[in-house]
Write a structure and sequence with these properties.
By secondary structure, this protein is of the alpha+beta class. The protein has two domains: about 200 residues, Ribosomal Protein S5, domain 2 (2-Layer Sandwich); about 150 residues, GHMP kinase, C-terminal domain (Alpha-Beta Plaits, 2-Layer Sandwich). About 35% of the residues lie in helices and about 20% in strands. It contains eight helices and twelve strands. The strands form two sheets. Strands 1, 2, 3, 4, 5, 6, 7 and 12 form an eight-stranded mixed beta sheet that branches. A hairpin with a 2-residue loop joins strand 3 and strand 4. Helix 2 packs across helix 3. The chain is globular, with a radius of gyration of 21 Å. About 45% of the residues are buried.
C-alpha cells in the first residue's frame, strides 16, 4: 500500500479554533514486538489485547496562528502540570508526521493529557498517549477537509491513518485504536496485515477469549530504568535477533489457531513463553539489562504453583517493565481474583493493582 494515500490533497486554509478530545486505551501484546527498522517499521509481527480501564485521555486545543511560521508551537500538560520534558518527544513526532499533516505549523496547540495508570512504568503509556494525540490531530484534519462526508469508507480511512500516525510516535501505539485484538506487522497468514498500521484481528475468536480479564500488578510504579526505545535499538546486532523474529512470525501463525479453537492451555504456553522471551532479549543484549524485579519472579512462581494446584487457566504476561499482567477467562474470575488479593497483592508497590479486561478501542469525548 502506498503511503502517499495518507498525504491530504484537499485541505482548507480557513482560520479555525477549537478543541477535540479522545480517550485511547493501552494494550498488552500477546506476541511481542521488540526491534524496529527505520521509520518505526517492526522487525516482527505482534498481536495484542486492547485494554479497557488503562487509558489516556487527551484534549487538544488548537488556534490558527495570525502569520505563517517555520516552527511548531505547542505546550504539553500532564495532569494539569506543564511538562516541558515531554515536548522534545512531541517535536520529533511532529517532524515525522508533518508530510501527512501539513497544517501543523499553522496552529498553536495545547496538549492536555492524563492517564488512568502510572506513566512510564511499563503499561504502554506512550501507546495510549500517542494514539490519543493522533486521533485528535485526525479530528482537526477532518474539520479542514473539503467535501469530506461521513461515509463508511472515510471512517475506515480515519482510523487507519490515525494508526499510521500513532506508529510514528510510538510503535505499539498503532495497536491502541481498536479492539479487541489488533495485529501489527505484515504476515502472510493474516489478511490485510501491514507494517504501516494495526488492524483489527479479522478472524473468528472462540468464546473462551471473549471478555478476557487482565489484572495488572503494579510491582514498580516508577519510571523504567531503560526506555523501550533504547531496548528496541539494542536488537540491532543482537546475537539472537534473527531467531527471535522467526519465532514471533511462527507464534502469530500458532495463536491464530489457538484463538479459533479456544485451547486455553496452548494459549497460556504461548503467551508466557513470549513474555519470558522478551525479557531474555533484554538480558542478552549488549549492554544487557533487567527490568524484572525480585517480586516479579515471586509472582510468576506463585502463579505457576496455583495453576498446578487448581487447574485454573491463570497465566501471566509482561510488557517492557516489572509489572505483571495476569490473564484469565471471565468464568474463572472469582477464584482467581481471590488468589490475587490474598497471595499476590503483597508483592505490589503499596498494594496497588488494576483490574482490567479486553476493551473495544478509542472513543471521541
Amino acid at each position: 500500500m502506498p503511503i502517499s494515500k495518507f498525504i491530504p490533497t484537499n485541505l482548507s486554509n480557513k482560520p479555525i479554533n477549537g478543541e477535540t478530545s479522545w480517550s485511547s486505551p493501552s494494550n498488552i501484546a500477546l506476541v511481542k514486538y521488540w526491534g524496529k527498522k527505520e521509520n518505526q517499521i517492526p522487525e516482527n509481527q505482534s498481536i495484542s489485547f486492547t485494554l479497557d480501564a488503562c487509558k489516556t485521555i487527551t484534549k487538544l486545543t488548537y488556534s490558527k496562528k495570525e502569520s505563517e511560521s517555520k516552527d511548531y508551537s505547542f505546550q504539553v500538560f500532564l495532569d494539569k502540570t506543564h511538562k516541558p520534558d515531554f515536548e522534545p518527544k512531541i517535536q520529533i513526532f511532529f517532524e515525522r508526521i508533518e508530510i501527512y499533516m501539513p497544517f501543523l505549523k499553522n496552529f498553536h496547540f495545547k496538549i492536555e493529557t492524563e492517564n488512568t495508570f502510572p506513566h512510564s512504568s511499563g503499561i504502554a503509556s506512550s501507546a495510549s498517549g500517542m494514539s490519543a494525540l493522533a486521533l485528535c490531530l485526525m479530528s482537526i484534519e477532518k474539520e479542514l477537509s473539503v467535501g469530506q462526508g461521513e461515509n463508511q469508507e472515510y471512517q475506515e480511512y480515519f482510523i487507519q491513518k490515525a494508526s499510521f500516525l500513532a506508529r510514528l510516535g510510538s510503535g505499539s501505539a498503532c495497536r491502541s485504536l481498536e479492539g479487541d485484538l489488533v495485529v501489527w506487522g505484515k504476515h502472510n497468514d493474516i489478511e490485510g496485515s501491514s507494517d504501516l498500521f494495526g488492524i483489527k484481528y479479522p478472524y473468528q475468536v472462540h468464546e473462551n477469549f471473549k471478555n478476557y480479564q487482565d489484572t495488572i500488578l503494579l510491582v514498580d510504579k516508577g519510571e523504567k530504568q531503560v526506555s523501550s526505545t533504547v531496548g528496541h535499538n539494542l536488537m540491532h546486532g543482537h546475537p539472537f535477533a534473527k531467531e527471535r523474529f522467526k519465532q514471533a512470525e511462527e507464534n502469530i501463525y500458532k495463536i491464530k489457531g489457538v484463538l479459533q479453537s479456544g485451547d486455553l492451555d496452548a494459549f497460556i504456553a504461548l503467551v508466557e513463553n513470549e513474555a519470558l522471551t522478551l525479557h531474555a532479549m533484554m538480558m542478552t543484549s549488549m549492554p544487557y539489562f533487567i527490568l524484572m524485579k525480585p517480586d516479579t519472579l515471586e509472582i510468576i512462581n506463585k502463579i505457576w504453583s496455583f495453576r498446578k494446584e487448581t487447574g485454573l487457566h491463570i497465566s501471566f504476561t509482561l510488557d517492557a517493565g516489572a509489572n505483571v499482567h495476569i490473564l484469565y477467562p471471565e468464568n474463572e474470575s472469582d477464584a482467581i481474583l481471590d488468589f490475587i488479593k490474598t497471595e499476590l497483592v503483597a508483592y505490589c508497590q503499596n498494594g496497588h493493582y488494576i483490574c482490567d479486561r479486553i476493551g473495544f478501542g478509542a472513543k471521541q469525548l
